[in-house]
Amino acid sequence: MKYHKHMGISKYFSIAAGILTGVLIFIIAAQFFGFTLGNKKILESCQGEYVKYNSFDPYCLTVVKQTLPLGSKYVIIVSGKNDNNRYVLNYLDPDPVNEDEITKMRVMWTGEGIELTYSTGHKLYIPKEKFIVSK
């Protein structure tokens, strides 16, 4: 009698383990394929009148926090008037960056590109050739 009762518990354990394994595989696959649970705009800066690229001006730089199944990442997007013209940079930083540091970031638009300066003094430069589209 005890043997049959123990087999019933084992059966439920196997079913639960199978369901848990399936959920974990789904989460890992969603992370791997870049499925986002949400996007939050952290910072936006648009090209000023003093800079002309003569190619679908004006451009805007947006920093977005993407929430993924197993964490989050920051993405920098530079886009023109027509959203088909986009340059996307997945921001990877060796030091943890938080939203407060990103909102304090200085964005400088120049004739040669975009310079981002963080509150820590680190700089990121995006040359105009990476995001402008020829007419």
Along the chain, the helix and strand elements come as HEEEEHEEE
Low-confidence runs of at least 5 consecutive residues: none
> Helical element count?
2
Portion in helices: 25-40%
Fraction of residues in β-strands: 35-45%
Strand segment count: 7
Number of domains: 2
**Cα-atom radius of gyration:** 23 Å
Judging from the principal axes of the Cα atoms, what is the shape?
A: elongated
Biggest β-sheet, characterized? 4 strands, antiparallel
Q: Going across the major beta sheet, what is the strand order?
A: 1-2-3-4
Q: State the separation between the terminal residues, measured CA to CA.
A: 82 Å
What structural class is derived from the secondary structure elements? Answer: alpha+beta
Mean pLDDT: 80
Write the layout of secondary structure elements.
Layout: H1 2-32, E1 38-46, E2 60-68, E3 71-79, E4 86-91, H2 99-103, E5 106-110, E6 113-117, E7 123-127
Antiparallel strand pairs: 1-2, 2-3, 3-4, 5-6, 6-7
What does this structure look like?
With 135 residues, the protein is an alpha+beta fold. It has two domains: 1-35; 38-130. It has two helices and seven strands; from the N terminus they run αββββαβββ. It has helices at residues 2-32, 99-103, and strands at 38-46, 60-68, 71-79, 86-91, 106-110, 113-117, 123-127.
